[in-house]
Structures are given as C-alpha cells and as structure tokens.
Amino acid sequence: MNRRSFLQYGTLGLGGFGLTELFRAQLQAGQQVTTPDTSVIFVWLPGGPPHMEMYDMKPDAPADYRGIFNPIATNVPGLDVCELMPLHTQCADRYNIIRSIRHNFADHGGGHKRFLTGRDPKEPTGFVNDAPAVGSIVAKCREHVQTGLPNYISGTNPGRAGVDVYSFGAAYLGPSYVPFNVPGDPSDPKFEVKNISLDASLTDRLDDRLTLLTAFDQVRARIDSTGLMNAVDEANRSAVSLLTSDRARNAFDLSQESDETKDRYGRHAWGYRALLARRLVEAGSSFVTMVMENPYVSGIDFLKQGTYNWDSHAVNCHLFDDAKMRLPIYDRAVTALVEDIYARGLDKKVMLVVTGEFGRTPRISSQNGTQTGVMQPGRDHWPNAMSMLVAGGGMRTGQVIGSTTSKGEEPKERPLTPNDLWATVYRHLGIDPEMSFPDHAGRPMPILPYGSPIEELL
Known about the structure:
The protein is α/β, with parallel strands linked by helices. It contains 12 helices and 18 strands. The radius of gyration is 22 Å and the shape is globular.
C-alpha cells in the first residue's frame, strides 16, 4: 500500500478510521490488499551491553579503555569479535555489525523509550511510553493479517511480563497492540503457554458462545465511541484465535525440535527463547521480541560477582568475570539463530536485530561491588556509541557498518540513530514510515518522525 492510496481515504484516525476499515474499504473498492510475507525477530539486551567487550574492541587503546579481552578474526576479513564469542567467527558472513548508532538518553528508562519508540521521550526517566513501541506499530499496521498467531509476541522472565518493564507499551494506540507475552523459561520442563489449547468437549459450546458474542459485538460497536470496546473485542478475538489455532499450538511446541537443534541453541532460557522466536516467525507472527537479560538460570549457577542484566556498573558486577559467564551463553544462542534462519531458507523473510538500549563507557572505572564488597572493574551507561548485530532480511551481510573513535567514545564514520535502524525495519515489513496515527489529543503522529533506511543493508 503506497502513501497516495492511503491518503485517498483521508487522514487516518481523525474520524476514528482505523486500518481494519481501510483494508475493508480497499477490498470493497476492488483493490488488492498486499502485505509482504516478512517478519522481525528482535532480541533485546536490557541494561546496555558493553560494545568494547563484544563487537567494537580497541586493542590499541590505553589499558583503562581496552579491557582484558582480545579480538579474534572471523571468516570475514576486518570483522573481529571478542575471544569469548568464538561461534561468531564461523558465521560472520551471515550477519552485519553496526558500530555507529548513538542517541542522547543515558538513563535506562529514557534509553529504552528513545530506542524502542524512535522518539525523544517527554520524560528522561521511567519506562512508561508516551509514544508506541515499534512492535506495537507493527501490530497496528498488520492487524488485518490473520495467521492464527498474535502479530506481536514477547518472551520475558517470570515477573517481568509487564509492558512497562522494558517500555514495550503501545501508548496512544491502546491496549490492543501490546505484545502477547510468554513469560518463563522455555527450557524448563514445566514451561507452558496459557490459553492455547481447548478440550474437544468444549468446542461446540465455544461455537455457541462465539455466535452470541458476535451479535453483542454488533450492538456494542454502534453505541461505543471510546474505543475501549474495540480493545476488548480485539482481546477476545486474539484469545479465540489462540484457542482454536493448531498453528499456535504447534509453533509453541518445542518438543518438535531435534536434540541436535536444542543443543546447538543451548539448553537454557536464552537458547530456547531464540529457538522459539524462529518457530513463531516461521509460523506467521510479524514481530517477536525475546529478552535475554539474566543468564544465571536454566541450571547455570549465579556468580557472586555477576549481575542480573547487562548493566555492568562496577557496583553491580565484575565486568570481566560476568562477561566470561555471559558472553559464551549469548554467543551460542545468537549464532544458532543466525545459522538457523539461513539453513531454513528464512533469510529473506526474517530480519534479526540484536541490541540493547545503549553501550557502556569506553573508560573503565572501579568501585566496591555491592555483592562482593571488594574493588572491581565496570563500565557505566554510554548512549554516545553502541554496537548491534543485524542479519537476514534479504540484506547484504558480512559487513561492519560505521566506526567509532580510537577509544570507542563516539561515531567516527557513518553516524546513525535508532531511527535509521527502524526505517530499515519498516522497509523490510512493507510499512510506510510516513503513516500517522492520532495521539490522545487527536493529533496525527507519524510512526517515525525521521530516519532513513541504512543503505548498506539494502
């Protein structure tokens, strides 16, 4: 759908005109509605991964910048990674590293909101969005796509399922467009996804209730002007879709995967979340977010000098000891996902993005650890430079895009923002970033205020 045909139906939202009505109008006008068969896996690393311990190492920098780890060569000349990630070396020709994205929000809340919405947040702290997260935008733009799976799914640790924990909120789009969350450790034998199965004896009763609900919905639609009923109806439709969809049950059923595949991903929460993400997009979900936050689960002993997420302040953890535990787990899960996307012929359909909200300070600092009580090294928040991995999406791969200064302090070549990444993602999904949705005041808000697709990836 191009911008001109979209505008033929008037400014979206000013009269309560949503995408469902737009596509219905197109069908009635004899126009064909086409949406590319594409999807995104978004791996979120909350806390801020250390770019100089992962993808932007500076072996020639002073000792208090470069750290203790060495870079190792990959199968792509000039693309080096940390020695703790040896599996990255075998498939570097199938991913890209972007080293030059930056923004201006150093608080976790502000960083989450800035990165995930493509907008400067009104408040530099806190995790409640005043603009929709990109996943919510995708869910809104693809609400006409019915595959038997939610178009926006997230996987988190138990107790971390709220949309405001990571700024996954839909803001003025409303509660219909928050992610369908799957909390828990998928590698746990007791792991289950609620509400995706229905006893056969209840099928007839479900059909009767659906007929009755449809009649009620038609009445409520005529009297409701708040949009609340629409959100309730959408929740009902999603629940029924999951209850009656073999595709949903099969997609979440990791027992269908071979032991060899499970071993390759790693038999822990991060590995199984990555594997589940591949299954969900393969089955038809449009945007799957998997959070890789706490590595000390799935039988992995907690490290006293380690920390819960990627927030490697010296008071939180010993930067290097935590990395020795964390990075090999990450290395296995992410590279298995990259290789699987290509092995299964999904590399044009599925775009993979792996990132946190910002990088870490180039210069190492030392403080007494809260858990250890001894001096230990760490890095603080640093939005001026960050690194991320992208793969699939039909893009050219085996590239390093952008660079930072000799101490990793800020972009030197090809400075980019999170919006350039999202412009690339929207292009892959066939979404026009100039489309607008009304905010709470009824003002049309473009889904991306600025940003251009990253040419090297096209």
